Amino acid sequence: MRVIFLIPFVLIFSGVTGQKVDKKLDVALKKEIAGFNGDIGIYVHHLKKNRMVAINADTVFPTASIVKVPILVGVFDKIASGELKLSQEFIYDTSRLYGGSGLMQFYKDSAKTDLSTMISLMLTYSDNITSIWLQQLSGGGMAINKMMDDLGLKNTKVNSRTEGRLEIWKKYGWGQTTPREMSKLFQLIREGKVIDARHSDKMYRYLKNQFYNGRSLAQFPSTVNTISKTGSVNEARGEVVLVNAPGGDIVFCVLTKNNKDQSWTDSNEAEVLTRKIAALIWNHYEPGHTFKSYPVIE
C-alpha cells in the first residue's frame, strides 16, 4: 500500500490549517440552492486563499460514476508496486458486457486493449465495463476501501462487488462519499500526495480529459485547465472539479440525492443547478476573469 503523507492530510482534514469560511460565497450558494427538489451537499475550497464553504459537506451521498476516482487510485497502487503496467495488454470478451455509459460494450469479442486505454475509457467516457474490470485488477473493493481509510476518507467507499457491503450497496449503489472527502481526494492528487508525486501526476493527466464537459466545466473559459468527474443515476447527480484558476486552484464537489427530477436531459434540475453553482464559484473568485457561459449545444 503506497498511500503517503497521512499525518499532514489529517491536519488538513481536521481544519488545523486555519481554513476560514468564505461567508459571502456561503450566503450566495445557500440562496442559489434554496428550493432544490432533493438533497444537496457542497464543499468548496480555494487552496491559495484557504477559504472554504461547507454545506452538508459531511453527509454521505451516492457517488454513481464518481466512484471511478477511488478505482483509479487502486489501479495506480498496483502500477506503483509493479503488479500492473500501463502498456500491459488485455483481451476483451463479451462475457464482460455491461450496459450504461462507455464504449467498450461496442468492442468486438477478443479485441485487444491495454491498461492505459482502459483507464482512459473509465475516466473520459465513464465506461462501466472497464471500471468493473479495473476494480477487479486493483484488488477489489476491499483493497480500494482500505486505501481510502488510510487517506482519512472514512466515508468514501466502493460498495458494489465488495464483501460485506450488500446492504449499504442497496442504499447508495456502486459507491458512496461526501462532498468534503471527494474534494480532498482531488486535492491530494493535485498536491502529489496519493502514492507519490510521480503517480499522482499521471492520475491528474488522465482526469483532464472529460467527454462529459457540459456541467461545471462549461462554466469556465475553455483555456483554463481542469480535472473532473461526473456521476449520474436516476435519483442522484454529482460532480467533483479542481480548476487551475488564474487566482489559484479551486476544488469543489456538488452531490445530490433523492432528486425529484430524474430526467436524462441537459435541463435536469440537478444538472442545471450544478452549472449555476460552478458559475457562481468562478465569478466569485475570478472577478477579473468573468466568464459568461454559452447556451448548451444540443
Count of helices?
Answer: 10
Supply Rg.
18 Å
Strand order of the largest sheet: 1-3-2-11-10-9
The largest sheet, given as strand count, sense and whether it forms a barrel, is: 6 strands, mixed
The CATH topology label is Beta-lactamase
Helix proportion of residues, in percent? 25-40%
CATH architecture descriptor text? 3-Layer(aba) Sandwich
Q: How big a fraction of the residues is strand?
A: 15-25%
Overall tally of structural domains? 1
Separation of termini? 44 Å
InterPro entries: Beta-lactam/transpept-like, Beta-lactam_cat, Beta-lactam_class-A
Keywords: Hydrolase
Catalytic activity: a beta-lactam + H2O = a substituted beta-amino acid
Domain Beta-lactamase class A catalytic: 41-256
Helix-strand blueprint:
Elements: H1 6-13, E1 20-21, H2 23-33, E2 39-46, E3 51-55, E4 61-62, H3 68-80, E5 89-91, E6 112-114, H4 115-124, H5 128-137, H6 141-150, E7 157-158, H7 166-172, E8 175-177, H8 179-190, H9 197-207, E9 226-233, E10 236-245, E11 248-257, H10 269-285
Parallel strand pairs: 1-3
Antiparallel strand pairs: 2-3, 2-11, 4-8, 5-6, 7-8, 9-10, 10-11
Helix pairs in contact: 2-10, 3-5, 3-6, 4-5
